[in-house]
Amino acid sequence: MVSLVETVEWMGANSDVLVRQSIQHLSIALTALVIGIVLWVPTGVLVRNNERVSQVLLGASGIVLTIPSLALLPLLIPFFGIGEAPAIVALVLYSALPIMRNTVVGIAETDGAMKEAGRGLGLTDRQLLVRVQLPMAYPVIMAGIRQATVLLIAITTVAAYFGAGGLGRSIFAGIRLANADQIIGATIVLSALAIVLDYGLATTVRLLPNSEVIDT
Amino acid sequence: MSHDTATETASNSIAFENVTKVYDDGTEAVTDVSFSVSSGETATLVGPSGCGKTTTMKMVNALVEPTTGTVSVDETPVSEYDPIELRRKVGYVIQDIGLFKHMTIEENVGIVPDIVGWSDDRIENRVTELLELVRLDDDVRTKYPQELSGGQQQRVGVARALAAEPEVMLMDEPFGALDPITREQLQNEFLDIQAGLDVTIVFVTHDIDEALKMGDKVAVLQDGELIQYDPPAELLRNPNNAFVESFLGEDRQLAQLQTVAVREVMGPANEAPTNDGGTPLSPDDTLRLAVQNWLRSETDVVPVVEDGTVVGSLSEVHIRSIFDGRSRAIEENHV
Ligand SMILES: Nc1ncnc2c1ncn2[C@@H]1O[C@H](COP(=O)(O)OP(=O)(O)O)[C@@H](O)[C@H]1O
Ligand SMILES: [Mg+2]
């Protein structure tokens, strides 16, 4: 039987390891997230008016998401070696669908009357994008980024199996040693990270005037 | 702009010449339409839904390009303007209002001045001026559109369209989504506002009463064709065909009374009753008010009084005289 008391005791005894792995975990996941945002939001913006291209890109990123990470990671090792690099590449690919899809959809769904008024008042396409469409799409884009965040935190765990650091180390070690406290303890920390990040990102939306947090 | 508008006097602010619009899917929305709006005038475009009003209006600010024919603004073909520049000098109000939900009222109203590079001070002063003009409390400037009522939002819509001092305003069913009382209030206020501005207006509506009320001239459209383009009184007196007649409605005569001033039809002062002939009329009253008074009065002739002196008299004959032209037209049509 697992006892929560023992789990907490294990966590206490190994807090230095858990903290170090949490930092590694966050650094891998957040690096990938930042690259993903920098890559996929502008891509979504660029393809917003081209239905064909955006369908193709969204289709491809949907397919990527169906590849299990246990299969995708070893595929990348020949190109990027072992450790953090292939993990980050894989994570960036996984983040494409939620981020790009929400960018495209968020922009496309800007209230028609606002677009019409903006155009009629003489805003250029770019001004309409920057002043009207992106601010209106912001909560939708943020919802995509939050989805991606939780997804990347989870997948980073698997990357430990292929030589990247993070909380996955403790979990895989726990499995090898049949140490339930270790597995559960590391998982609790992992969940806490995901919840805190998700909540923090939701707050950035709430701070904006008239933006509602979109639940995913 | 390469054009030299030397003939400022002729100034047709907006002109349509044989304009046809066929959309990509083959819909012919506007067919061979020609009309012009003089500087400072309001033209209303009226007709049933789908008759091409919006399409016609959008060709003025290059949101829609004519398939054939020419639309000119200030005597220069729209096609020779940079569309963005043109739209910035043409105010635009739509039925759905389309206020930017993430911007305050101040930012909404100031958006065109902002993108054309006015200084912050100048924009702030202009916003103050405009809020006053459209009778909104200055408190609203920091509010968001959703915090305002529909009527207030449309006032902001009008203020936003007027912000950069446009010479031309396009208004597409601006009061269409409002309740009847608010609509009437906004119509009246807008007539007031407009009287103080030197702006040419194209006003789209599907409501004939609104068209007659707001327009110096009314363009009646049917299936993309311009059936009649006349001042309200003339339209009521001489509808071109059965469509216009039926569109004007059963109470056309009542509407017509609204368009004529007592002064235009009254009889000589010496026919006015010398005894107390009921509430006197002013020469500037509409005939509609006159009929109301006349029905209430005990005599058949009502005096018309200006500055304390009797200047005319009004009886049934005078009131009926406005329908004479029309009855003649009907006789001609029916032979
Ligand atoms: N972008 C478009 N593409 C194709 N057909 C259109 C488009 N816009 C309007 N139409 C059609 O053109 C006709 C006139 O439309 P519109 O000008 O909006 O009329 P109104 O404003 O009088 O209701 C209608 O049959 C409408 O369906
Ligand atoms: Mg319309």
From TrEMBL, chain A:
Instruction: Name a biological process GO annotation.
Output: transmembrane transport
Q: List the keywords (alphabetical).
A: Membrane, Transmembrane, Transmembrane helix, Transport
Question: What's the protein called, per UniProt?
Answer: ABC transporter permease
* SUPFAM superfamilies, per database record: MetI-like
Transmembrane stretches, start-end = 26-47, 56-81, 87-108, 151-171, 183-202
Where do the ABC transmembrane type-1 domain residues begin and end? 22-201
Is Transport included in the keywords of this UniProt record?
yes
| Gene Ontology CC terms | plasma membrane
Q: What's its membrane topology? A: Multi-pass membrane protein
Any idea where this protein resides?
A: Cell membrane; Membrane
Q: Which family does it belong to?
A: Belongs to the binding-protein-dependent transport system permease family.
Superkingdom, taxonomy of origin: Archaea
UniProtKB/TrEMBL annotation, chain B:
- Keyword entries, A-Z: ATP-binding, Molybdenum, Nucleotide-binding, Transport
Which GO molecular function entries does the Swiss-Prot or TrEMBL record give? ABC-type tungstate transporter activity; ATP binding; ATP hydrolysis activity
Sequence similarity: Belongs to the ABC transporter superfamily. Sulfate/tungstate importer (TC 3.A.1.6) family.
Which reactions fall under this protein's catalytic activity?
Answer: tungstate(in) + ATP + H2O = tungstate(out) + ADP + phosphate + H(+)
Organismal lineage: Archaea, Methanobacteriati, Methanobacteriota, Stenosarchaea group, Halobacteria
What is said about its interaction partners and assembly? The complex is composed of two ATP-binding proteins (WtpC), two transmembrane proteins (WtpB) and a solute-binding protein (WtpA).
Q: What is its main location?
A: membrane
- What positions does the domain ABC transporter occupy? 14-248
Nucleotide-binding as UniProt keyword: yes
Q: Please give one Pfam family short name.
A: ABC_tran
Listed under GO cellular component are: plasma membrane
Q: Does the keyword Transport apply?
A: yes
**Which protein, by its recorded name, is this?**
Molybdate/tungstate import ATP-binding protein WtpC
